[in-house]
Amino acid sequence: MKDLAWLIRFYFTQFVNKLLHPTKENVIKNLLVLVFAAMFFPIVYQLFFFIFKHFYSVPIIGGLLVNKLISTFFLTFSVMIILSAIVAAIPVLYLSHDMDFLFSSPLKTETIFATQCVKVTFGASWMIILMGIPIFAAYMAVMKISLGVYFFILLSHIPFFISLASVGILATVLLVRFFPAENVRNMAIALSGIFAVVFIIYFRMLQPEKLTGAGVDQVSDFIKNLRTPDAWWMPHAYFVSIVKKAAMGGVYGGLYDFFYFLSSSLLILTSVITASKYLYFEGYGKKGARRKERPLSPDYKYIKHHMFTAQSLKDGKYLLRDTSQWIQVVFLAGIVFIYLFNLYKLPAELFGLKDFIFFLNIGFIGMVLAAVGSRFVLPVISTEGNGFWIFKTAPVTMARYVMYKFLVYSVPLILTGQLVAVISINILKPGQFVNYLTMYSTFFITLVIASVGIGFGAYFANFNIKNPEDLITGAAGLAYMFLSFMYVALVLFIEAGIVKDYYMAQLVRAQVFKPFSYMLNYALIMITALAISVPALLSGINKLKKMEN
Which of 56, 152, 245, 321 makes an SS bond possible with 62, Cβ 3.0 to 4.6 Å? Predict the structure, then answer.
């Protein structure tokens, strides 16, 4: 107990010091998190309120459908938490600098392991609980449950997280005994990404919008397709049982199941901590196992390339060799597929409304590409690592280096955006003006995304970073996403009046639409794009110049 108390005091002191003496980056990050939360929570609430209300409106079995949907979501979350625990456990248990210090102290292995388990559990589940706040707020509004029951449901997440994170931690400890830690982490990232994309595609293919006005056969088919395994050993089954009993009988109705679930999860965690005494330390000693690099052949010849060509080849090889980057392609393909499938399934009777709906999807294209840019573009300068000294000592200015990076990554991003726009146009077949407006808007949106990604990536560059995810989830990633989303929103605001006039001209034939009368709006889109892109790139260049000195 003394060891555990010492470790708790150690980490509590760290927390207090960070709270009382925040760095500039932490202040920026916290402010951006508050801004994102203020925007994110209402959007998620409205989305799930619409979904739950849509299902609840089905006669007789509306409540059953809502709870079935909750079960499906939390089965998915179960897999995601286990995989996230594996991803989080690698840096916390094996790569953290704290571990070398702790193992040099007279502390028991299981005590060290237990405190790190708490950190891993929090790291694997914090996003789910943030999602749960607006999701169950919508559930409370639709199912008409009390505020006390709402907080009780949120509290019931704790045993759900503990049990699943414990499984992920145990899997990590076992895998690292046989495979290098980084390989295990990359595998978990790949599996979690693939699983998320497959689930979203599967749920979208069910076409739940057909339930409105559906017959008994259609509803029963939907329930059959939505069927999830609810075995006694699956944590999500206990959680959903607590939710259902609390929704029907209040807090007291789910209290017995809650304490039973909590005691079971603590038992699982205790078993994992006990097993760590025999498994963890040996795996920690193997954490740095690496594959042998293939030596260059004796007849290898150096080929001189132009700076731009050499940099392009180097970045291309990095993307191919780093398996953690491959999953981004799966994410992109899955999201684009869902987007195009939604457009394809628009009812044919919408007629002219397709032009208006397609205009709104310009924003969705921008958000998808912003997410892709955060993975591919933002970390590229930081991933140079200690190799950045080559560029610092080479006869290359930082302006030239940054602009080459911008060209290497902006061209594929712009082409991807245009490709998605062209496919969307062929599916919807809107008016010719909307086609041109979409291509024009997408070009400048991707230009801003690439510029801000490279500029902020240079400004917030950290060449000692081990995991690019740390940069994406830090101040750099939040600032990048905030500015990208703000520009997308600005483009939609500027074009709203244009699309409204165009749509009215389609409905009222007497009204003539003149595209060239909106030249000021088109110019404003371009000017604002340049006003964001140029300062972002210059700020990154100036920061790298200061590093050089």
Answer: 56
